[in-house]
Design brief:
It comes from Sinorhizobium sojae CCBAU 05684. It contains 13 helices and 17 strands. The chain is α/β, with parallel strands linked by helices. The structure holds 4'-deoxy-4'-aminopyridoxal-5'-phosphate. 4'-deoxy-4'-aminopyridoxal-5'-phosphate binds next to helix 5.
């Protein structure tokens, strides 16, 4: 009989990578069961999508109620009230003490595309500055903004013009905030007139690039540079949003408001929905019909997102993220005593990561990180790696994870790291 993996290889483009061979059958909160009844603890959460857990009862109830009313009318043709209401809620919740407006789209990449379109329309400028190691999606502009060539840009030809990259400050890799800011200033001297720059985009905590938080001094400096030159600041909170970092949005850690904020993933707890929220006058720059899309703000995603926002508040998931993150970081600190390969443990709230170097060469070791991942998988814990060197294991468990399941996962994690040493 042909295995599912063989069928998948025959039917699906290899361009869609797969990190496990588990075929999901059902999932609940932080657990997934496969077709053969094997049970896994899910520390990937569909890549940061189910912060509120798989099939949160409130999210499912909201979606079921919506399914019984209508599933699609296209908001641009026959609008619906809960789309307007969700925009009102996000406008109130997003950082920034000013009038805001929102648009809904379907994916994180689309949110980034639209933020760039809006920034260009509002400023009448072209250029966009992003950072090395940043990730902003697989569409053409998202890909151009992404600061990693393999696998994201290889073979896809010319990127959209007028995209520039500066190095992201990561002390651990020898790039200080001062060096990063100096490189940005050099960009203005050598490559692009700041008067032509529409926006600077960054993730408050780099996600795919390795879970590196942007220091507050850096964020403040960027805000000042933007204000000095009339450049818009775009915070890409697609991965950091919705309580993951211990705040609803990671920008709240810095007390700095971006002009535009992109969100997706955990916004709708497992249903496709993304958004751009920003200063009202900037959001209004594109003309009617310039923004939108057939499925943008699907009634199903919108219904789910209302429930997600309720759950985050009712279950105090920001506090819970901080508690879980502290427990995880404490456990990793204890494992570090016996593991010279661990060179860093980091991350705000429950957006945590552990970074590995080779114990002999002290160079980043993707091999060690991958061993940890595979050991954990064999023991029933799904982990993800990340980082420009691939040497980081990141943790994205649902913030609703039950204490006993979390404790079990920490034991598996410890065993998997220690086993990778032998
Ligand atoms: N921006 C960031 C910061 C992301 O982490 C991602 C997805 N990993 C994206 C954009 C793209 O989102 P999507 O895959 O939904 O297009």
């Amino acid at each position: 009989m042909t295995s599912l993996t063989d069928r998948k290889n025959a039917a699906i483009s290899r361009g869609v990578g797969m990190t496990t061979q588990i075929y999901a059958d059902r999932a609940e909160n932080a657990e997934i069961w496969d077709k053969d009844g094997n049970r896994y603890i899910d520390f990937a959460a569909g890549i940061a999508v189910v912060n509120t857990g798989h099939r949160h009862p409130k999210v499912i109830a909201a979606v079921k109620a919506q399914l019984d009313r209508f599933t699609h009318t296209c908001h641009q043709v026959v609008p619906y009230e809960n789309y307007v209401h969700l925009a009102e809620r996000l406008n109130a919740l997003a950082p920034g003490d000013f009038a805001k407006k929102t648009i809904f789209v379907t994916t994180g990449a689309e949110a980034v595309e639209n933020a760039v379109k809006i920034a260009r329309a509002a400023t009448g400028r072209q250029a966009i500055i992003a950072f090395g190691g940043g990730f902003h999606g697989r569409t053409f502009m998202g890909m151009a903004l992404t600061g990693k060539v393999v696998p994201y840009k290889v073979g896809f030809g010319a990127m959209p013009a007028d995209v520039f990259h500066a190095p992201f400050p990561i002390e651990l890799h020898g790039v200080s905030v001062e060096q990063s800011l100096a490189a940005l200033k050099k960009l203005f001297v050598a490559d692009v007139d700041p008067g032509r720059v529409a926006a600077i985009i960054l993730e408050p905590v780099q996600g795919e690039g390795g879970f590196y938080p942007a220091p507050t001094v850096f964020m403040k400096a960027l805000r000042e540079i933007c204000d000095e030159h009339g450049i818009l600041l775009i915070a890409d909170e697609v991965q950091t949003g919705f309580a993951r970092t211990g705040k609803l949005f990671a920008m709240e850690h810095h007390n700095i408001a971006p002009d535009l904020l992109t969100m997706a993933k955990s916004l709708a707890g497992g249903f496709p929905l993304a958004a751009v929220t920003g200063r009202a006058e900037i959001m209004d720059a594109p003309g009617p019909g310039g923004l939108g899309g057939t499925y943008g703000g699907s009634p199903i995603g919108i219904a789910a997102a209302h429930a997600v926002l309720d759950v985050i508040e009712e279950e105090q998931l920001c506090d819970r993220a901080n508690q879980l993150g502290n427990r995880l970081k404490q456990r990793l600190a204890a494992i570090r005593e016996k593991t010279p390969e661990i060179v860093d443990i980091r991350g705000p709230g429950f957006m945590n990561a552990v970074e590995f170097n080779d114990a002999k060469t002290n160079l980043p070791s993707a091999d060690f990180a991958n061993k940890v991942r595979l050991n954990a998988l064999a023991k029933g814990l799904i982990l993800l790696t990340c980082g420009v060197h691939g040497n980081v294991v990141r943790f994205l468990a649902p913030i609703t994870i039950q204490d006993e399941v979390f404790a079990e996962a920490l034991d598996i994690l410890e065993a998997s790291i220690l086993e990778a040493r032998s």
